[in-house]
Write a structure and sequence with these properties.
The structure is a single chain. β1 and β2 form a beta hairpin. The chain has a four-stranded antiparallel sheet with strand order 1-2-3-4, with helices on one face. It is built from one helix and four strands; from the N terminus they run αββββ. By secondary structure, the chain is of the alpha+beta class. The longest helix is centred in the N-terminal third of the chain and has 52 residues. It starts with a helix and ends with a strand. The radius of gyration is 24 Å and the shape is elongated.
């Protein structure tokens, strides 16, 4: 009888140890993916500013940028979606603007942008999707 109780106790402790080790590996992976998403959100915003500085606004506006990270592989880990909203007067046709935000009184504030950067993990990488949103207002 004591041998059966001993086996049950050992089996219970083994299952607990296995459960905890699996859980800690998942938490470590999720922490890594979240930290990487935070860095990619900052980098995506900076990339949008760089792309806007080299864009020809006489043709059209730069409204969205979509990036897969890493870009050199077909198995990406993060999807970066950047949406740009413009505030100001005399903007080219087709610009994303906020309603009522085109009555800027000073020339210095003209063509100010609100950049929404959304970073989402690939569902194939993690069982729980990590989604991070960053909004900034910039004057390119």
């Amino acid at each position: 009888m004591s041998a059966v109780v001993f086996l049950v106790v050992i089996a219970t402790l083994s299952m607990l140890a296995l459960s905890l080790s699996t859980q800690s590996a998942k938490v470590t992976t999720d922490n890594y993916l979240k930290a990487q998403a935070e860095l990619l959100a900052k980098s995506g915003t900076e990339f949008a500013l760089l792309a806007m500085s080299g864009h020809d606004y006489s043709v059209n506006c730069l409204n969205t940028i979509d990036i897969k990270y890493p870009t050199n592989t077909s198995n990406y880990t993060h999807d970066i979606n950047i949406t740009i909203h413009y505030i100001g007067n005399s903007l080219p046709a087709g610009c994303n603007t906020y309603t009522g935000a085109n009555n800027i009184a000073t020339a210095d504030s003209n063509r100010t942008v609100i950049i929404d950067t959304v970073v989402t993990t690939n569902p194939d990488v993690s069982s729980e999707t990590i989604r991070l949103h960053r909004r900034t207002i910039q004057k390119p």
